[in-house]
């Protein structure tokens, strides 16, 4: 398949789930996914920490991760209960339409073209399925900068209390779109999407795909 390669599910050492500004939202995402179970896709799954948690509440999980070493770590975490694909989510060609009950995307959407990525994720959701994004946005207005500054103290204190850490190989990129721009695109492409500013310089996007209209 173009743009992806299956990683062996051979068990590898698990580094555990470190607390950081992304994993702070994992329990919220997992609780939402548990309402449906079924099949979940984690776009940009990193070392598989969220994917492993999703495997505990979903029948099957699929992760996509671009970095080979990180993808191997993720595969080890879900051996026997999921699949990890090493490659570019946007280049993968053979996901079936309406294949997933839940799609999560944490700190990864800003690495992809916003509108195209949202449309692709929407196409892969089953009717009634949920898209759950935790992302980063750019500061472009005075309000953006002020609200960002107000988060500094709570973020630093939380990081110290939880011994904040990340995994080796985590990709970093600056977001391009402001929260207002993200909200506008989501409103056009995902009618009814809820986009909220959150702590730790994050936003959440939640969208339920409408059920098919019966003839």
Automatic annotation (TrEMBL):
It comes from the Bacteria. This is Methyltransferase type 11. Pfam families: Methyltransf_11. Keywords: Methyltransferase, S-adenosyl-L-methionine, Transferase. The lineage of its organism: Bacteria, Bacillati, Actinomycetota, Coriobacteriia, Coriobacteriales. One of its GO terms (molecular function) is S-adenosylmethionine-dependent methyltransferase activity. Residues 41-133 form the Methyltransferase type domain. GO terms for biological process: methylation. Gene3D superfamilies: Vaccinia Virus protein VP39 (3.40.50.150).
């Amino acid at each position: 398949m173009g743009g992806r390669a299956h990683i062996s599910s051979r068990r590898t050492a698990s580094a555990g789930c470190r607390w950081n500004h992304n994993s702070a939202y994992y329990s919220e995402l997992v609780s939402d996914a548990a309402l449906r179970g079924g099949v979940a896709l984690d776009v940009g799954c990193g070392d598989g920490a969220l994917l492993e948690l999703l495997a505990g509440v979903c029948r099957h999980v699929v992760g996509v991760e671009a970095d080979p070493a990180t993808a191997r770590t993720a595969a080890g975490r879900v051996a026997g209960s999921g699949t990890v694909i090493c490659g570019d989510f946007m280049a993968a060609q053979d996901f079936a339409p309406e294949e997933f009950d839940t799609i999560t995307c944490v700190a990864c959407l800003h690495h992809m073209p916003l509108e195209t990525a949202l449309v692709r994720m929407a196409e892969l959701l089953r009717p009634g399925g949920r898209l759950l994004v935790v992302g980063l946005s750019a500061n472009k207005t005075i309000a953006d900068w002020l609200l960002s500054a107000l988060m500094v103290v709570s973020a630093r204190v939380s990081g110290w209390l939880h011994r904040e850490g990340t995994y080796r190989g985590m990709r970093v990129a600056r977001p391009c779109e402001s929260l207002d721009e993200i909200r506008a695109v989501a409103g056009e492409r995902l009618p009814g999407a809820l986009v909220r500013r959150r702590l730790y310089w994050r936003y959440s996007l939640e969208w339920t795909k409408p059920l098919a209209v019966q003839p």
